[in-house]
Amino acid sequence: MAAETQYTANTGMVVISTANSNLDGTGTLGTVLTAASNGTLVKRITVKAQGNVTQGMVRLFVYDGTNTRLLEEILIPAVTQGSTEMSFEQTIECNYRLQATYVLKASTQNAETFNVIAEGLNWAYYATSVRPESTNFTANTGMSLISTANSNLDGTGTLGTVLTAANLKGCRIESVTIKAIVNTSYGMVRLFISDGTNKRLLTEVFVPAITKSSVASSFSAKVTLGNFELQPTYSLLASTQNAESFAIIAEGMDWQYPA
Fold first, then answer.
1. Where are the domains of the chain?
2. Are 40 and 33 in contact, with CB atoms under 8 Å apart?
3. What is the distance between the alpha carbons of residues 53 and 76, in angstroms, rounded to a whole number?
């Protein structure tokens, strides 16, 4: 961020208690936090039970106003709370930049009560006196759901558009989260770069065979791209080897300079 960056705390809180076993974003979810105008840095998320819990899951989702995509699952062990025994608690370090107006949501596998608290930071820029070389970032959270089998490595076949760089100076892609919402068999998820005409394979992610359940997470992988700088209007695409459903969520930051 530039020296003129100004931060405002954005603390998101929700209580979830309605049983929801769905991984596709349907069913009852609680709204944890909504991102501000340039985006919100979600630093960490705390899940705290309000009483006894049995084995299950708390799930985190990203909602763009139309689509809801699974971001992460948190395994909940059986814990009996008492006067000298703490209830279940887990804090997840995120440092995830969420696009403006996008919403972080949460659900619980079992009908048990949890507080979900997100520590966020909104950012803005001091416009009255700004250096012309200052870099202004805007969060770009890309999301896609892929499910059509495609074994091609040459960019043909069915691919989902995950993220498109704004027509500014470019988009810095920090990470891509791949999260299965079904059982998986051995295969691949592939990421491509498209210039609008040509599609080129960037990397492949091996997918093992995993059977999900109420106490076993579905396949998940986080690809760190080392701040891949994507040219304006270029896109990140994804495909799946097998006809299995994956939520693909890219953490990007478009940038520009003051006029």
1. 5-125, 136-256
2. yes
3. 8
Whole-angstrom distance, CA of residue 63 vs CA of residue 74: 18
Of residues 54, 126, 49, the one with CA closest to residue 88:
49
pLDDT tens digit string along 214-231? 999 999 999 999 889 999
Q: Tell me which fold the domain 136-256 belongs to.
A: Jelly Rolls (2.60.120)
Among 59, 52, 96, 91, which Cα is nearest to 74's?
59
Q: Domain 5-125: state its class.
A: mainly beta
Token pair belonging to 259: 């006029």
The string over 68-83, giving b where at least 16 C-beta atoms fall within 10 Å of a residue's C-beta and e elsewhere, is: bbbbbbbebeebeeee
Residues 182-199 have pLDDT tens digits of 999 999 999 999 999 999
- Per the CB < 8 A criterion, the answer to whether 253 and 95 are in contact is no
- Residue 218 and residue 57: Cα distance in Å, rounded? 11
Structure tokens at 218: 């579905």
